């Protein structure tokens, strides 16, 4: 199944190479992000392998198009001489976010989420679903 699903990235890349990102890459980026949010919200609502496969395929097809739109926007908006610094800065921020969120999620889970779902109002609110 995972080998089959990985072809979705190739399909997304083929779509970008064949059609590009359109005349307005900002519209493409925002629209596909909205579709991705919709897919990620609804394919996780049930423990179903069918929903999972459809959701992962959709996400994997859309992600190369979204990334290409983002890179197109950066290349069009930022002057050529400054692109290296801007891309490097953006990558450093993305890299710094990973350990930061890792260290934040532990205390949030320990002091907020777990008590909310074991003894708090979360048990009656979404306990059976969760």
Describe the structure concisely.
With 130 residues, this protein is mainly alpha-helical.
Could you characterize what this model shows?
By secondary structure, the chain is an all-alpha fold. It has a domain at 2-77. The protein has five helices and no strands. The protein has helices spanning 2-19, 25-42, 49-77, 83-118, 121-126. Helix 1 (2-19) runs parallel beside helix 3 (49-77) and helix 2 (25-42) packs antiparallel against helix 3. The two termini are 26 Å apart.
Distance between the termini: 26 Å
Give the class from helix and strand content and strand pairing.
mainly alpha
Oligomer: single chain
Helix fraction by DSSP (H/I, runs of at least 4): over 70%
**Beta-strand percent range:** under 5%
Radius of gyration in whole Å, from Cα? 19 Å
Continuous helix count = 5
Shape field: extended
Instruction: Outline the biggest β-sheet.
Output: none
Rounded average pLDDT: 88
Order of helices and strands: HHHHH
How many beta-strand runs? 0
Low-confidence stretches: none
């Amino acid at each position: 199944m995972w080998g089959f699903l990985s072809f979705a990235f190739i399909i997304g890349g083929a779509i970008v190479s064949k059609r590009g990102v359109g005349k307005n890459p900002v519209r493409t980026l925002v629209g596909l992000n909205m579709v991705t949010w919709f897919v990620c919200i609804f394919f996780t609502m049930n423990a179903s392998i069918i929903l999972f496969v459809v959701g992962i395929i959709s996400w994997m097809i859309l992600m190369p198009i979204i990334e290409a739109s983002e890179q197109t926007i950066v290349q069009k908006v930022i002057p050529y001489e400054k692109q290296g610094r801007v891309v490097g800065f953006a990558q450093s921020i993305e890299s710094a976010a990973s350990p930061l969120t890792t260290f934040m999620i532990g205390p949030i889970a320990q002091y907020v989420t777990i008590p909310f779902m074991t003894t708090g109002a979360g048990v009656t609110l979404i306990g059976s679903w969760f």
